[in-house]
Amino acid sequence: MKAARSYLFVPASRPERIAKALASGADAVVVDLEDAVPPEAKATARAQLQAWLEGPQAAPVVLRINGCDTQEFGDDLALCRHPQVAAVMLPKAERPEDIARVADTGRPVLALVETAAAIDALRAIASAPGVQRLVFGSIDFQLDLGIDGEGEELLFFRSQIVLASRLARLQPPVDGVSTALDDEALLRADSERARRLGFGAKLCIHPRQVAAVNAAFTPDAQAVQWAQRVLQAAADAGGAAVALDGRMIDKPVILRAQDILARAGQQTPTPPKETNP
């Protein structure tokens, strides 16, 4: 299944916004019971969301629940078992045993890496059963570590998340939000940086961010054309060594071409095995 490129947040206390979010073009909508809902409103928001999930307009959504150290956690977990909850986003994911409690709902877990403790336990988190993806909660992470800056200040930590995801054979991780709603150039730059570092998606906090994020994580027409030519040349060669545009096509080039077509949502045929020279 093609991995989501964009995750758009909607407050659970505003279920009337979910339909608009679903129509925004976002690959996944995250209904938020945590930061977007004040403590005194969480029970009401949960009830409103359950009513929406059971209504005629319901569709699969991701549910961001409250942390396992909160009194809301148990009630949130019960709601996670609803058939319209496609996945669960766990904030402050730090321990495999906490992830196991969420995975027991039978839903894939999106583990939010938001603390120093999470980075310290990153590989254990990534390899915990049930985890589908790591998600970088960059804003809370900066607060936890006292980091002032979104760029090179977080490069080491972003790279660690990408590495842990690959070692655990997870989907490429999800980068954090860009808070500037009216700066499309900055959003594009943030998204492109994440893609270059090995992320496969990004969190969005407004529908107008979705198009730019989707574009950043979708190969453009030129890349798709190159990938198609590579795989066609390899197939035509029948496994023999072949060059394209003056460059040899070897296994890493073929794998890159297949990855591009997969991210573009196209078929990725496997060329014949290489023959020994």
TrEMBL record:
The keyword Ribonucleoprotein does not apply. Its cofactor is Mg(2+). Keywords: Lyase, Magnesium, Metal-binding. Residues 5-207 form the HpcH/HpaI aldolase/citrate lyase domain. Gene3D superfamilies: Phosphoenolpyruvate-binding domains (3.20.20.60). InterPro entries: Aldolase/citrate-lyase_domain, Citrate_lyase_beta/mcl1/mcl2, Pyrv/PenolPyrv_kinase-like_dom, Pyrv_kinase-like_dom_sf. It comes from the Bacteria. SUPFAM superfamilies: Phosphoenolpyruvate/pyruvate domain. GO terms for molecular function: lyase activity. Pfam families: HpcH_HpaI. This is CoA ester lyase. It comes from Aquincola tertiaricarbonis.
